[in-house]
Design a protein that fits this description.
The complex is a heterodimer of chains A (287) and B (338).
Chain A: H1 12-36, E1 38-39, H2 41-58, E2 73-76, H3 82-91, H4 132-146, E3 152-157, H5 164-175, E4 181-187, H6 196-199, H7 205-211, E5 215-220, H8 224-236, E6 243-248, H9 256-259, E7 267-268, H10 274-286
Helix pairs in contact in A: 1-2, 1-3, 1-10, 2-3, 2-8, 4-5
Chain B: E1 25-27, H1 29-40, E2 44-48, H2 58-63, E3 68-70, H3 75-87, E4 91-97, H4 98-104, H5 106-114, E5 121-125, H6 142-147, E6 153-155, H7 160-172, E7 177-181, E8 185-187, E9 203-206, E10 211-215, H8 219-231, E11 237-241, E12 244-246, H9 250-257, E13 262-270, H10 275-285, E14 292-297, H11 307-313, H12 318-328, H13 331-335
Parallel strand pairs in B: 2-3, 2-4, 4-5, 5-7, 6-7, 10-11, 10-13, 13-14
Antiparallel strand pairs in B: 1-8, 6-12, 9-11
Classes of the chains: A alpha/beta (287), B alpha/beta (338).
Organism (chain A): Arthrobacter pigmenti
Cofactor (chain A): thiamine diphosphate
InterPro entries (chain A): THDP-binding, Transketolase_N
Chain lengths: 287, 338
């Protein structure tokens, strides 16, 4: 793996490889969403670049052995983002690509909200928000107790920061010096009732985490090079502190008419629009 | 008489010892049992949310500091961290007060621990009426809250013997458990009987032909005292101790309910959703139609005050159990000539 320091560029071929993976993850998300005709499509598209960085470049794992002891643990708090995670897990070969078409159907291993007991590679049952970081603390403590150098990642949403338990967990992580913990906050400024900033603003998010004793970075989450550099810097730090990466992302990223759509949180896509979505995704990727 | 002259009953709010002065007790049985277990099993760790000293986990903390995690006054973080440690193969014992684990952190207990069926053991203090501090600290409905939670095993121990023997069995049980602990100087009661705690089992501590007291938790001690007291009135009372409330040992309970006796349930919990409900539920489903009288806390937020006063007020004291049993018997029964 190429080492990077602040401001250093990531090899262009590597960036291109990750971007291609992100494109396939977006395609995978659309395939699942089409089964239901609706869902958390906007979020899946916005977080696809971050998941591509994690699942095709940064995380250690073995898809043939999802519980491999030396794997990095990646905990998805936001179970709602299931189609995004499944899209990434399919790209990472945890299950066959064709299985995506079973999404949220009877007896599928891919339920509408991500649950650990159903899907290979899913570490926790998220969905009730504000849980992931509390569990990540225990996993991080457990890894340290075992002398296991793996990292714990927790993907949260900006809306999830409204839950007080997140801040209990943030304090515990800093107090216990959990330097093997990386929280990734997907800041897409959208929650159920509208824009996050209009519901209960948590800004400055980086400032809050820093005050709690964390190291933070904040980057454009749809810029894979920036995400790679930030994650590598955070992981390389010698500080006895937990780490937080805030990624600013765009709802519906990659599909122009979805980026511009008014109702973004739980999105409906017309039967006639799927072809257009795939077409625009391809056009924007190739642009 | 002025206020200063008159001796008023009080209860030390959080460090109250339930034991009477002349009673045999063991100090901090949970803490000592945990140290013993942790010495044998390196997977065992303890966690507390600022109440180690008040749940007896300080014994583990002080004896094996490397095996203990303090998370501060943060019950959601406590149960989430316990879940994460269990995911990594450890066997956490997480302690706080029952009210905080159940009312405050229910979602974490349910989704992080029970849904994942992790071996996390919650050992929580101040069950039911064991503090006069008032409803903020009295877990009068914790069993009712938790009985509906799939995968969860619920234990309400009687005494130090139950607690000591339960600890290794809770750790060995591959799933989440919740034990309402007694702490401080905890009475020793059950070692006078041919008794061993067995997770999931009810045990007949004494047999009797006329009355059956089905009891759980600290009420078993009072049921035994009441049975002894009633012997003076020539009333023959059986006591069936039910330390595991879920899963309920229905086989033993139904066997004892099948005999023609006056039946009472005794629990340190609201009469809604606890032992009485569980026993009645099993009886009706099995077609056993028998009047069962609940001795338990009323469907009210309890008064604050001194424990002896409150136990009398709410009918949980030994003398009140005796009165209740007598009121249910045919008056002629207790008045018969020698």
């Amino acid at each position: 793996m190429q080492s990077t320091t602040e401001g250093a560029a990531v090899d262009a071929a590597r960036v291109q490889r990750i971007r291609e993976a992100a494109y396939r993850i977006r395609t995978n998300a659309l395939i699942q969403a089409e089964v239901q005709g609706q869902g958390y499509i906007g979020q899946a598209l916005d977080v696809a670049d971050v998941l591509a960085v994690l699942y095709t470049d940064q995380l250690k794992f073995n898809p043939a052995d999802p519980e491999w002891e030396d794997r990095d643990r990646c905990l998805l708090s936001i179970g709602h983002y299931a189609i995004a995670l499944y899209a990434a897990l399919a790209e990472a070969k945890f299950f066959p690509h064709e299985e995506l078409e079973t999404y949220a159907t009877d007896d599928s291993r891919l339920p509408m909200s991500a649950m650990a007991s159903y899907t290979p590679g899913v570490e926790i049952s998220g969905g009730s928000l504000g849980h992931g970081l509390t569990i990540a603390n225990g996993v991080a403590l457990g890894l340290k107790r075992k002398g296991n150098p793996a990292f714990v990642y927790n993907i949260l949403s900006d809306g999830e920061l409204n839950e007080g338990s997140t801040w209990e967990a943030a304090a515990v992580a800093a107090h216990h010096k959990l330097d093997n913990l990386i929280a990734i906050v997907d800041f897409n400024d959208q929650q159920a009732d509208g824009k996050s900033q209009a519901m209960l603003s948590m800004e400055p998010i980086d400032g809050k985490f820093e005050t709690f004793g964390w190291i933070t970075r904040r980057v454009d989450g749809n810029d894979v090079e920036a995400v790679v550099i930030a994650l590598e810097e955070l992981r390389a730090s010698d500080a006895a502190q937990p780490r937080c990466l805030i990624v600013n992302t765009k709802l519906g990223k990659g599909v122009k008419f979805l980026e511009e759509r008014e109702k973004l949180h739980f999105m409906s896509v017309g039967a006639d629009e799927w072809q257009l979505a795939h077409q625009q995704l391809k056009e924007q990727f190739e642009a | 008489m002025s206020i200063t002259q008159k001796k008023r009953l009080t209860s030390d709010a959080m460090s109250a010892s339930l034991a009477g002065e002349d009673q045999r007790t063991t100090a901090a049985p949970l803490g000592h049992a945990l140290v013993q277990l942790a010495q044998q099993d390196e997977r065992v760790v303890g966690l507390s949310a600022d109440l180690a000293k008040y749940t007896d986990l300080h014994i583990l903390r002080d004896a094996m500091p490397d095996r203990f995690y303090q998370v501060g006054m943060a019950e959601q973080a406590l149960l989430g961290a316990a879940a994460g440690l269990a995911m990594e193969g450890f066997v956490p014992f997480a302690s706080t007060y029952s009210v905080f684990a159940t009312r405050r952190a229910y979602d974490f207990l349910c989704l992080d621990i029970a849904e994942a069926n992790l071996n996390v053991n919650m050992v929580c203090a101040l069950p039911g009426l064991t503090t006069g501090y008032g409803p903020s600290h009295q877990a009068t409905e914790d069993v009712a809250i938790l009985r509906g939670m799939p995968n969860l095993t619920i234990v309400d121990p009687c005494d130090a013997v139950d607690i000591e023997q339960a600890v290794p069995q809770l750790a060995a049980h591959n799933g989440p458990t919740y034990m309402r602990i007694l702490r401080g100087k905890v009475p020793r009661v059950l070692d006078e009987y041919d008794y061993t705690f067995e997770l999931g089992k009810a045990q007949l501590l004494r047999d009797g032909a006329e009355v059956l007291l089905i009891s759980t938790g600290l009420m078993t001690e009072r049921a035994l005292e009441a049975a002894k007291a009633l012997t003076q009135d020539r009333v023959d009372v059986a006591v069936l101790h039910v330390p595991t409330l879920k899963p309920l040992d229905e086989e033993t309970i139904l066997r004892e309910l099948g005999r023609d006796r006056v039946v009472l349930t005794c629990e340190n919990h609201t009469v809604i959703g606890g032992l009485f409900d569980a026993v009645a539920h099993a009886a009706i489903r099995d077609g056993v139609f028998r009047q069962i009288t609940p001795v338990g806390l009323p469907d009210e937020f309890l008064d604050a005050g001194a424990l002896p006063t409150l136990n009398d007020r709410y009918g949980l004291s030994t003398s009140k159990i005796v009165e209740r049993v007598k009121s249910l018997l045919d008056p002629k029964h207790t008045e018969r000539p020698d």
